[in-house]
Amino acid sequence: MKLVMVGSGYVGLVSGVCFADFGFDVTCVDVDESKIARLETGQLPIYEPGLDQLLAENVQAGRLRFSTDLAAAAANADAVFIAVGTPSRRGDGEADLSYVFEAARQVARVAKPGTVVIIKSTVVVGTCRKVKEIIAAERPDLDFSVASNPEFLREGSAIEDFMRPDRVVIGVHDKRGESILRRAYRPLYLRDSPVVVTTLENAELIKYASNAFLAMKVTFINEVADLCETVGGNVQEVARAIGLDGRIGAKFLHAGPGFGGSCFPKDTRAFAATGQRYNAPLRLIEAVISVNEDRKRRMAARILEQLGSDARGKKVAVLGIAFKPNTDDVREAPSLDIVPRLIEAGATVVAHDPEARKQAQAVLKGVVWAEDAYEAAEGADVVAVLTEWNEYRGLDLKRLAKAMRGNTLVDLRNIYRPEDLEETGLFYISVGRPSLGEPRRQQASVQAV
Ligand code: UDX
Q1: Ligand 1: residues within 6 Å at CB?
Q2: Which of 234, 331, 342, 412 is a plausible cystine mate for 262, CB 3.0–4.6 Å?
């Protein structure tokens, strides 16, 4: 089968490479010529563990190619996946579907009879029907199908999530759409991955409901963490015990600084806007959005409190800028809220991130960058962990403490255990757990770095 992936971002690129690895002939298309040129030389525009290897193998096997020419690629395709961005529209939080509709028009102009156009982008309910109307209006003569195939890929584990999904969701309006998608995912049958075949609308709703529920689950444990802090509880022990209930499940119960990324924030806003539009307000999701936004502000305050009454002349080492580990993506990362607030208060911020420095430098101004965590901690009054990169878990905390001027470690991802702090002299603050040790206040006199 010949497949085309329109849009070579996080979703389109991973999906295109994995479909090629299933043995299909895949062309990944993008309007960004420099991105396509880099991909043709095997350079990835994103950091995703394992993707470079899988991409190289499939290019080598002649199953995978890249192009800016959508018309040429789509003209003889059996299935065209639309995986372009659906960013939040300014103001009302609705998903901006203009890129999806434009891609649909371009595909319509060249599609051969029998083509199945599959929407993989996260789109609000009713979009697939609208795409069907757009294509029919563009090509009244064309015999085609539309289908919905939302993705559930987590950045940092996207290949694993594609190759071993909890389920494949297929939204269709005819048998042809179903059979093409069943063929596309046939290699997963061997792994017994459940395939949910449903309507276009249900598939669109399933995607938003999944992400909104996961965002709500994270926000729930974040609020439980706040209560733990006031009553002397331990949110990790509470989370572990409630997660043992099969109806709750252990995942997505790690308290932290709030959720970020290119999906949860955008998808919760769009889902809430959909509820408002159809007069079925999703009040829980509206609360999730405001609680999460407020949390990032409060986490900045938690760090600032440790700098005494005046942050000027103080230095904070920030470990981790990416919205989560194993990605270079900083979109709506808590760091983008927290770091500017520290700088605004007069603090000097020295940051480190194993992968996200390049992406972050485009959006985070006034930050000094360090080559490693120990360098960042040099002369710092406070060290704050914002992203749970594995390399931070193994830090020599005694060495870190020696490098610092102050002694406060604010761990917003609960990556350390009490025993890790023994004999370090650090004052340890985390999320939803009792603090350890005593603060050592310094007067403002650090030399500008
Ligand atoms: C998410 C969904 O998981 C995925 O199925 C969908 O296809 C895309 O959106 P992603 O945005 O890559 O994936 O990240 P995810 O791992 O879900 O984390 C989202 C946010 O929640 C991150 O900011 C993360 O730090 C936070 N999070 C997640 C927590 O704070 N605690 C948790 O226990 C889990």
Answers
A1: 151-155, 211, 214, 218, 252-254, 256, 259-261, 263-264, 323-324
A2: 331
| Pair 240, 328 in one domain | yes
Which atom of ligand 1 is the closest one to the Cα of 222? 30
For a ligand 1 pocket test, name from 155, 169, 324, 392 the mutation site with the most ligand atoms within 8 angstroms of its C-beta: 324
With respect to residue 140, please indicate whether it lies within any of the assigned structural domains.
Answer: yes
Residue 77's domain comprises: 2-198
182 and 248, same domain (yes or no): no
Query: Within this chain, do residues 165 and 20 fall inside the same structural domain, yes or no?
Result: yes
From 214, 217, 238, the mutation candidate for ligand 1 (largest count of ligand atoms within 8 A of CB) is 214
- Proportion of the chain above pLDDT 70, given as a percent: 98
Q: Is residue 206 part of a domain?
A: no
Do 44 and 71 lie in one domain? The reply is yes
399 CA to middle of ligand 1, Å?
Answer: 32
Catalytic residues: 263
Listing DSSP states for 354-386 in one string gives TTTHHHHHTT--S-EE-SSHHHHHTT-SEEEE-
Domain final residue, candidates 198, 224, 251: 198
Do 252 and 313 lie in one domain? The reply is yes
CB 125 within 8 A of CB 205: yes
How many domains does one find in the chain?
A: 2
Residues 220-250 have pLDDT tens digits of 999 999 999 999 999 999 999 999 999 999 9
Torsion of CA 276, 103, 35, 165, to 10 degrees: 60
- Strands 168-172, 145-148: pairing is antiparallel
What are phi and psi for residue 410, nearest 5 degrees? -105, 110
Of all protein residues, the one whose alpha carbon is nearest to atom 1 of ligand 1 is 154
